[in-house]
């Protein structure tokens, strides 16, 4: 096993996660099987109980792991499926060691940070690195490890010590350290300053780790004299110093690394030069360039609770982007704080109220994402009501689905006090109820989590067609409450349908309004499985409906791609099975079309 470790210095937020994801993508394009590990030095067991406003979204894996959002970047870039073991936290490591101590596994020895904690970290890395994540059997060839935080943080010290020991144990030919650092440009003189990176590398070397490669964040490419200075003072060869300068979108980062031959430097350190292929990133490059050139806008209003930090909805944003690029539309997102749509805001902050409603009414489509708690709920219900009454395409996810049901009960069924039991335990008409296996006393890891199967009840629904008329689909969940099955017959008799249910038929997974252009809610989180070039079907449906192209999307979704081949005119010919007779249909695409079809 080869290991590539990505650390960060000077300041946080430099893009270590995107850098690690890009490195994994390049190595995969060189023909290697890759996996990834994120080390988070906080004391939480996992990200499940952390506020999205403080830490960004909680990303959910197939096995139900609630993890850091960077694992979402790994999955999207490398097209892999990680496990909860691929996210190491201080809380997990200390819990593991203390449980061993309580069992007496240390045979009376004094349990210390070194060697017991550092050994546990190294064992965890080796164990997680061997877990197959790409659908094949056996371990990957290369494991990319991102060390969260910044060099010098107190909480990172055990992990840095463990990685120093680990590099010695596995050998220099199996360990490559890439240090992401900042090279600021002072506006006063316009000069790139190397001192912050020099000090960061000095601190790193003082802790027992020497970087093989420097990845320098800056507003523009590094000048040769700046590279020479960094090489001299950081003791890193000039050819191993790359610039990650500002780009129109993060899909350009792997291309930047390839252009600067970062993959050659990594392969040289890991002694893989002789067996690596030339990176095949042609389709990725076309996708990145196309995204920059899109000009026909599609405007989506995202009505949420945590809009002050956009990382709170990172996977939502990415899924919308994947779908809009697939439909060749320039995505414009209006982030609307749900509470600004409520009557209270009209009195307390009339300007915010008017601005929020202006954005909502000007949107081509509306998305209400998941969330917890009462704040902003009435605003989300008003957004669902506006979408239903004005035939605006709507996608509700998790709580967004539940509140669409509540809104329908109140304004169509006439149940004025209809509500979710989460929001009003005393409601006489609970449209959404607590799940029996949930916990009201413990929050961490007690929800319905991970990949669960949804069975389509009919092939006539839009959602079934978007998923290619499959009989079932596996999507990821994160919720404690669900639609009350006792009220389902009343909803269905009044026109609201539930075309997706679980295996028992008692859990409502998808809700639709058939007489609406696109009014869909999902109890699951489809955004977690969206990938560049392979957008989530429900997001594709929202973007298609918002741009007036839903019929085309539904038609294409019902065609199953069976492969592609070069065409004589230099374009790409893609083959589909179409219709009950399963006759192959040939469709010729332009070069740009092929990454979006």
UniProtKB/TrEMBL annotation:
Task: Write down the Pfam families for this protein, in alphabetical order.
Answer: CTP_synth_N, GATase
Name all CTP synthase N-terminal domain ranges.
2-272
Q: Which residues form the signal peptide?
A: none
Report keywords, A-Z: ATP-binding, Glutamine amidotransferase, Ligase, Nucleotide-binding, Pyrimidine biosynthesis
- List the molecular function annotations (GO) for this entry: ATP binding; CTP synthase activity; identical protein binding
What name goes with this protein?
CTP synthase
Q: What is its EC number?
A: 6.3.4.2
Q: Show where the Glutamine amidotransferase domain sits.
A: 309-543
């Amino acid at each position: 096993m080869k290991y590539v470790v990505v650390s960060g210095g000077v300041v946080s937020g430099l893009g270590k996660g995107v850098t690690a994801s890009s490195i994994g993508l390049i190595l995969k394009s060189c023909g290697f099987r890759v996996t990834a590990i994120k080390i988070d030095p906080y004391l939480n067991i996992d990200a499940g109980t952390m506020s999205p406003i403080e830490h960004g979204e909680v990303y959910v894996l197939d096995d139900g792991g609630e993890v850091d959002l960077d694992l979402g970047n790994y999955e999207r870039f490398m097209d892999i499926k990680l496990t909860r073991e691929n996210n190491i936290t201080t809380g997990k490591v200390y819990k593991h060691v203390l449980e061993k101590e309580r069992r007496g596994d240390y045979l009376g020895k004094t349990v210390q940070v070194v060697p017991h904690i550092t050994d546990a970290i190294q064992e965890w890395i080796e164990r997680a690195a061997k877990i197959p994540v790409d659908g094949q059997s056996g371990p990957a060839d290369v494991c990319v490890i991102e060390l969260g935080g910044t060099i010098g943080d107190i909480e990172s010290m055990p992990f840095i010590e463990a990685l120093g020991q680990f590099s010695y144990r596995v050998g220099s030919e199996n360990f490559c350290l890439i240090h992401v650092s900042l090279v600021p440009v002072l506006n006063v003189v316009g000069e790139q300053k190397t001192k912050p990176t020099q000090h960061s590398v000095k601190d790193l070397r003082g802790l027992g780790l020497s970087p093989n490669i420097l990845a320098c964040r800056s507003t523009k490419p590094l000048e040769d004299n700046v590279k020479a200075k960094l090489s001299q003072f950081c003791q890193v060869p000039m050819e191993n110093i790359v610039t990650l300068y500002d780009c129109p979108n993060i899909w350009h980062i792997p291309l930047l690394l390839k252009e600067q031959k970062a993959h050659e430097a990594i392969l040289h350190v890991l002694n893989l030069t002789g067996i690596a292929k030339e990176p095949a990133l042609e389709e990725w490059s076309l996708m990145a360039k196309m995204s920059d050139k899109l000009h026909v806008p599609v405007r989506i209003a995202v009505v949420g609770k945590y809009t002050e930090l956009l990382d709170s909805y990172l996977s939502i944003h990415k899924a919308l982007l994947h779908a809009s690029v697939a439909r060749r539309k320039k995505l414009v997102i209006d982030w609307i704080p749900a509470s600004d749509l409520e009557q209270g805001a009209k009195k307390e902050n009339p300007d915010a109220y008017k601005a929020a409603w202006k954005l909502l009414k000007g949107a081509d489509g509306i998305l209400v994402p998941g969330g917890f708690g009462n704040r902003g709920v009435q605003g989300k219900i008003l957004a669902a009501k506006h979408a239903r009454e004005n035939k605006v395409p709507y996608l509700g996810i998790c709580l967004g689905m539940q509140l669409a049901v509540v809104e329908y009960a109140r304004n169509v069924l006439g149940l004025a006090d209809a509500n979710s039991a989460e929001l009003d335990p005393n409601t006489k008409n609970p449209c959404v109820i607590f799940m029996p296996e949930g916990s009201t006393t413990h929050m961490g890891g007690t929800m319905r989590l991970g990949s669960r199967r949804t069975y389509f009840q009919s092939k006539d629904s839009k959602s079934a067609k978007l998923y290619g008329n499959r009989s079932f689909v596996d999507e990821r969940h994160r919720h404690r409450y669900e639609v009350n099955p006792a009220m389902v017959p009343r909803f269905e008799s009044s026109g609201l349908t539930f075309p997706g249910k679980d295996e028992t038929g008692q859990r409502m997974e998808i809700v639709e309004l058939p007489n609406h252009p696109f009014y869909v809610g999902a109890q699951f989180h489809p955004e977690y499985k969206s990938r560049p070039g392979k957008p989530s079907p429900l997001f594709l449906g929202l973007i298609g409906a918002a741009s007036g192209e839903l019929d085309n999307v539904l038609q294409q979704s019902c065609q199953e791609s069976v492969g592609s081949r070069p065409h004589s005119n230099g374009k790409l010919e893609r083959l589909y099975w179409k219709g009950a007779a399963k006759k192959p249909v040939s469709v010729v695409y332009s070069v740009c079309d092929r990454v979006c079809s």
